[in-house]
Amino acid sequence: MLLTIDVSNSTIKAGVFDGDQLVAFWQIATERRKAVDDYAMLFLNLFRSSNIKPKAITGVSISCVVPQLRSVFRQLCIRYLKVTPFLVGPDAKIAIRVDLDYPSEVGGDRITNASATYALYGGPAIAIAFGTATVFDCISEDGTYLGGAIAPGMIGALESLTERAAQLFKVELIRPPLAIAKNSMHAIQSGMIFGYTGLVERLVQRLKAELATSSSKPVQVVATGGLADVIAPETDEITVVDHQLTLKGLRLVYDLNKD
Fold this sequence. Notes:
With 259 residues, the protein is an alpha/beta fold. It is built from 7 helices and 11 strands. β10, α6 (228-231) and β11 (240-241) form a beta-alpha-beta unit. It is globular.
């Protein structure tokens, strides 16, 4: 079995694949101060809850954008699973070509999302990851990763708004009845949900126009991340929501690099 781990700034997603089937999936909060043993106990409990024996894990593929946690998860795998993990980086073999000014700057999550999007949905395509940042990655029809755009994430923007404005407060990100709100809660929800929908739509339209210069095929727009479920119902620009896109990408990249 293959354990895949995607460590982002705010959450850690992990999944176990048996062949190409995802048989277990977990999501926990990222805690930078946790030690190797802390995370190990947590993962061993997750394995136990899903009836997965640690010795059944024969490979591990990791994407980690939190530098101080890379060694933590590497040591976790070596000590507790007896497996040396594969950490996705700029030197990883992938099934798409990279056309960027500085490939080493790109995080492993973006590489895996682009790889998975092209492998599963073809090109041209745009992958949108709704996380700490809202990240747009573009792949051409012939499988070239072209780059993309990064906007502030919805949660960070909401926290900044409520922390800096004394009379505003945190709200749940659910759709308000109308865009013209009659109270503060609905006003914040309107600005966040309809405002971010507008950001996504306009940026996707611009990215599509640039992709159209090299292809006449329709562009597939694949969204991932928990907040994809908030924005996707509000727009026709998103083709599909795939919450396990990054984990699927980690499996694909692992298969290309395991030899």
